[in-house]
Amino acid sequence: MVTNGLHLGAPEAQTIDWLVRQDRVQVVPVxxxxxxxxxxxxIDIGExxxxxxxxxxxxxxxxxxxxxxxRPARRAGVPLKGTIGVLLEAFRRRYxxxxxxxxxxxxxxxxxxxxxxxxxxxxxxARARETSK
Length: 133
Known about the structure:
Layout: H1 2-8, H2 11-21, H3 45-57, E1 62-63, H4 67-75, E2 80-81, H5 83-92, H6 98-110, H7 118-132
Parallel strand pairs: 1-2
Helix pairs in contact: 1-2, 5-6, 5-7, 6-7
């Protein structure tokens, strides 16, 4: 993902590449079992690797937004958060102000490449506003 993103000039890939080079993000190889677990059927290998690594390392949670990958992750017993959940948690922990959180929700809604529903963004903004009262 990062390699292809770098070729495309994607800023997210550049950020991740920089974090890896700064030793702030660790790249961990994952050995795929043969055969793959039954839950792995409908998802791509990268998502399978994320779920397997979370199981091996006993992760608190993994970031998975795609609904088709969330179901297998749940079947595998892996706790999940999506982008909105991570941002809400950052807001609750005061890493983001309400204004910053609202701006991020606007950016998500305006980005056609992200398949995060407007209703979910509105729900998250409402929760953040309730929390800030």
